[in-house]
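re: ur question from the group chat, yeah i did fold both. here u go
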Amino acid sequence: MPVRMNNFMGSFGWWARKHFPNLASNAYLKLQFSRRRKTQDAYCAWFLSQEEAPMPHVVNIETINRCNSECEFCSANIHAERRPFMKMDENLYYSVIDQLADWGYKGHLTLYGNNEPFLDTRLVEFHKYAREKLPDSFIFCSTNGLMLTVKKVKELQPYINQLIINNYGLEMKLHENVQEVYDYIKSHPEEFKDLDVQIQIRYIKEVLTNRAGSSPNKQATEKVITEPCLLPFTDIWITPNGKVGLCCCDNFEVTDFGDLNTTPLKDIWNSEKMKEMRRQIADGRQNYPFCKHCDFIDAGFRMEVVKHVLAGDIEAANRTGGEEKNNNK
């Protein structure tokens, strides 16, 4: 089936996240940190041993810095957002895609950051251009589904490999419009045979990670995090103004590794500033001030990607689905 629906740990997981949010979050993070340390260390060591920084595996382009949801764990929710409104200049967007094409990029691409991508009316046009220029890339779109219709899915479908719908709510059920999308795709499987659709039922008040202190419902503590982080090694994070930040946790754009309006993407990725940051984080987040108390961990596909890379299978790494599991976004 081209559409799958899940809720992390089912009814029990929902109940735990609702009634014991901090306990559920901390228990999950403790488990994930302990399971991932060895692989993360191995990948960071491999990455730093290369003469030139290997290409990123995920390019995140936030084309508009707004969201229309009230997710309490996210600083981009409509009650917590404090960034000046901005949409990416079209010429800058096309330039970034062109640079990726010239670089020979075949990894993952998403026009998503701390935002709702469907708020950008250029979304289909932008995806079409990306697909034309990056035919071998795995392009996925992540949305909260509030604006989603069957028509919009059909318009976007030719240009993406995967559609992730994070259905946030107070009850463990689909929004009416998302239910319509689910029913239509399920009853027309041949029409969507080349598109992987994942619908994840999420609790809108759940506690996830502190996101380097930016999360509205889980502020960073004085606890020092000594584990490394994969994101500086796997992802490049581009905001609408063309700045390259550290990661998705920097919603307030504290970090700045370069400006794509003046510096090529490849030069920023290979810059000494980024290299030094990666060396520090590879030895533990405590070495980099922004990350020192951040307990964010990618619980999605990046671990699978780096496992494929360490096994020497880059093609499999590039085709790994971009599903976001419970403690991502």
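okk and heres the other one u asked abt
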Amino acid sequence: MQEGADYREPPPLDPDGDEPAAGPGDAAPEVRSMAVGTALHAQRLDKALVAMAPEFSRSHLQHLLELGHVQLDGVTATVASRRVRAGQQLRLELVPTDESRAFRPQAMALDILFEDEHVLVLNKPAGLVVHPAPGNWSGTLLNGLLAHHAAAAALPRAGIVHRLDKDTSGVMMVGKTLPAVTALVRDIAARDVHRRYLALAHGAPAQAHFSVEAPIGRDPAVRVRMAVVAGGRPARTDVERLAVQDGISALSCTLHTGRTHQIRVHLAWKGHPLVADALYGGKPALGMVRQALHATELKLAHPASRAPLAFACLPPADFRAAWQQVCPPGTRTAAQGVH
């Protein structure tokens, strides 16, 4: 989930990052050649490619065109609307799709808080994408999990049952077997997993304790955003105001549901966008240049033994320094959040 986003929802598009180039381990692409027949004479080039490789989408074949993987009579062709002529020799290199190259092991350092044969709990750093998506096809947590243990390759999403946003730090859990994944997903759906977040938001909520219960769905105007919309999926966030300093509030947020961007959307909808959350109107402050959100606490039943597990995760240095400007060390409110 993006801070608790539903594991079944696709991640929103992330405009940051570059798509990976083919590595040394990539197999040679399949090459197909044919002479343009009379039935395709004067047709668009991309339509001729669909006839040559009907199992691929037209958009993917157009992408191959743009990348220079198509030749007409031995000359690279890149314009999809170009008209072909009967008798021309058409050559197509079917390089793997970006998606097919995404799900491969990539060794990375994981900050593991707990691990056994059933479940893994880790501290995700800010800046790490959890699951491959357009703009981030490599270097994700999923790639790291595939390298960490072989069984991940046989699990849906390598065992990832919830996600944190790229720029959200903190504790998250991963199943290591199919029964464990199934149990964790059921516990999340039953709201038996406790997840608490620390947030720094603009403004001062009038109430010290309040709940935001408002449906969340895709923003109809901006594809990469979510929004409170009629007909969205039910969502509830409980919020506690711990301190306010110079127009910025330190908040503790507990999820009852896990929709994409839930905390970010709910707080922005209430007029309190997260500090440095540009997508939802939050301006940088207190030295924070990424959204001021940290998953600090996770409580769950072990997916196999059902023994209670509890984890607390200290925020990274940037968040901790910002937090302590609102909740100075030694105060009661500081003790509730950053120790």
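fwiw on the second one: The chain has eight helices and 15 strands. Residues 1-26 have pLDDT under 50 and may be disordered. idk if thats what u expected
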